[in-house]
């Protein structure tokens, strides 16, 4: 399916050491055929963090597998809290229920 944006809802004020600091996003047609799209450093995120997955010449990527790798947390925390994840394709937001019913992304 086409995916143009990945959004994570994070709350540093509530989660503190459980909040991701460094993340990477990989996409592909399967777990073994993924390539890294982006890496981000987050500084005390509060609310939705939007991660565009496309490029200037192509605003989306084709993917059946998306991996969000959390490399480190704030304050050297060991576990992570991601409160919600949304995928977007050209203005259509795939939330949990819609995503489960209509998408094949795993």
TrEMBL record:
The keyword Chloroplast does not apply. Residues 1-106 form the DOC domain. InterPro entries: APC10/Doc1 (IPR016901), APC_su10/DOC_dom (IPR004939), Galactose-bd-like_sf (IPR008979). Pfam families: ANAPC10. Keywords: Cell cycle, Cell division, Mitosis, Ubl conjugation pathway. Belongs to the APC10 family. This is Anaphase-promoting complex subunit 10.
